[in-house]
Amino acid sequence: MEIQPYASRIGETWFNLPMAQAVSTLRELCLECAFAPPPTRSAGQPVRIDKGELTQESFWQTLQQYLKPGAIVLVDQGTAACGAAALSRPDGALG
Question: Which residues of 27-64 are buried (b: 16+ CB within 10 A; e: fewer)?
């Protein structure tokens, strides 16, 4: 999904849907959803943290490990969009 000032697209299809209207509609839809907090990790499940410099490449490779089928990745334009575009996404994941 891409939301521009005067149009929005999903996949390759563009819609005459300005940013203000798209964001307002998405906000209303999100308010209708019930979100459950993520499950907590027990002390027996430590998160693996690699040592080294935090770079765009290491950040996105780490994030990619946690993507599940059906995940939605939402990023802004710029560096984040470039990093997210290179992700290998599981089946049904949108980005």
Answer: eeeeeeeeeeeeeeeeeeeeeeeeeeeeeeeeebeeeb
